[in-house]
C-alpha cells in the first residue's frame, strides 16, 4: 500500500509541476511584472496583505532564517526581510518560476537560495530553519497532506515556527461561477483529485493550454491532524472572513451570514 500511495503522489506532483512551469511565462512579463521588479528594489518591500502582516509582526522573528515551501517566484520569501527575517531558502517545483525569483532577488539585493524540488522528495542538504512559511494555494496542490506535513516538519529547527496563511477548506465547497454561487456545489469531505485545465493566471483570464494539473481539498481536521501527527504543536488557528485567493471569491465576503474564507495557523516544532 505504501508503494501504491507513493506512486500516486509522484503522479500528481509531476503533473502539477508541468502545469505550473507552462504557466510561469504569464507572470514574468508585462506591466505587473515590471512593477514587481521595481518594487522589490525599494526598502521595506512587501507583498503581504494586512492579515499576514499582523501575524508575522506579532512573532519574534528578527534574525531568524526562513524557508518558504511553494515559493513560486519568491516575492513573499523576499518580503520576509521587511520583518527582519533572513529569507534563506525558497522551494518550488517550477524552474521557470524560480528563475523569476532569482531576478526579484537580484533587484532586492538579497541572496536567498532557490531550490527546485518536490516537497515529498527533498534533497539531504535542504537544511533546517527557524521559520517555515506556507501561503495561499500550496495545500491544495498536495495529494498527501499528512506526508506533506512530515516533510515540512523536517525543515524545522528546534522551536521553529510554522506559519500557514491559506484558503479556508469551507470555501472550497462553493463555486463563484455557478448559476447558484451561494449554494454549496461540492462536498466538504470530497478529497478526490480535481482536474485543473489550462494555464494558471490568478485573475480568471484564459492563459491558454497547459498540461492537466490536479487540485485537492483537505478538511481543517486533516490539516490540523497532519500538523500534530508530524510532531508540531499548534499555537493558534484563526478563521478569517476575507478571501486571500482569486477576486471572484470576494462575493462571499461581507455577508449577513458570513462563512470562513481563509485561515492562519501558527505552530512550533
Q: Record the strand order, biggest sheet.
A: 3-2-1-4-5-9-8
Number of E strands: 9
Q: Give the mean pLDDT.
A: 94
Low-confidence stretches: none
Main sheet: strands, sense, barrel:
7 strands, mixed
Tell me the distance between the termini.
29 Å
The SS-based structural class is alpha/beta
CATH homologous superfamily label: Vaccinia Virus protein VP39
CATH architecture: 3-Layer(aba) Sandwich
> CATH topology, anyone?
Rossmann fold
Specify Rg, calculated over alpha carbons. Answer: 18 Å
- Determine the fraction of residues in helical runs and give it as a percent range: 25-40%
- CATH class category name: Alpha Beta
Element-by-element helix/strand order: HHHEHEHEEHEEEHEE
Task: Count the DSSP helices.
Answer: 7
Please state the overall shape, judged from the principal axes of the Cα atoms: globular
Q: Approximately how much beta-strand content do the residues carry?
A: 15-25%
Structurally, the number of domains stands at: 1
Please outline the helices and strands:
Layout: H1 2-23, H2 30-40, H3 50-57, E1 65-69, H4 75-79, E2 86-92, H5 95-108, E3 113-116, E4 129-134, H6 145-154, E5 156-167, E6 194-196, E7 213-215, H7 220-229, E8 233-240, E9 262-268
Helix pairs in contact: 2-5, 6-7
Summarize the structure.
The protein has 269 residues and is an alpha/beta fold. The protein has one domain (2-268): Rossmann fold (3-Layer(aba) Sandwich).
Amino acid at each position: 500500500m505504501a508503494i501504491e500511495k507513493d506512486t500516486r503522489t509522484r503522479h500528481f506532483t509531476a503533473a502539477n509541476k508541468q502545469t505550473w512551469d507552462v504557466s510561469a511565462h504569464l507572470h514574468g512579463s508585462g506591466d505587473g511584472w515590471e512593477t514587481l521588479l521595481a518594487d522589490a528594489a525599494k526598502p521595506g518591500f512587501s507583498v503581504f496583505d494586512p492579515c499576514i502582516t499582523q501575524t508575522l509582526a506579532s512573532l519574534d522573528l528578527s534574525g531568524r532564517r526562513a524557508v518558504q515551501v511553494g515559493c513560486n517566484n519568491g516575492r513573499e520569501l523576499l518580503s520576509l526581510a521587511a520583518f527582519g527575517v533572513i529569507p534563506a531558502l525558497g522551494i518550488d517545483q517550477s524552474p521557470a518560476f524560480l528563475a523569476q525569483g532569482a531576478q526579484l532577488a537580484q533587484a532586492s539585493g538579497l541572496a536567498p537560495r532557490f531550490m527546485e524540488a518536490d516537497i515529498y522528495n527533498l534533497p539531504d542538504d535542504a537544511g533546517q530553519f527557524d521559520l517555515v512559511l506556507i501561503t495561499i494555494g500550496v495545500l491544495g496542490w498536495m495529494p498527501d497532506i499528512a506526508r506533506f506535513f512530515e516533510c515540512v516538519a523536517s525543515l524545522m529547527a528546534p522551536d521553529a515556527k510554522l506559519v500557514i496563511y491559506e484558503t479556508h477548506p469551507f470555501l472550497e465547497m462553493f463555486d463563484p461561477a455557478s448559476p447558484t454561487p451561494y449554494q454549496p456545489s461540492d462536498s466538504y469531505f470530497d478529497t478526490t483529485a480535481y482536474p485543473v485545465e489550462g494555464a494558471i493566471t490568478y485573475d480568471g483570464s484564459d492563459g491558454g493550454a497547459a498540461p492537466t494539473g490536479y487540485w485537492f481539498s483537505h478538511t481543517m481536521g486533516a490539516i490540523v491532524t497532519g500538523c500534530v501527527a508530524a510532531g508540531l504543536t499548534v499555537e493558534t488557528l484563526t478563521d478569517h472572513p476575507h478571501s486571500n485567493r482569486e477576486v471572484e471569491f470576494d462575493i462571499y465576503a461581507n455577508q449577513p451570514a458570513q462563512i470562513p474564507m481563509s485561515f492562519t495557523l501558527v505552530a512550533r516544532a
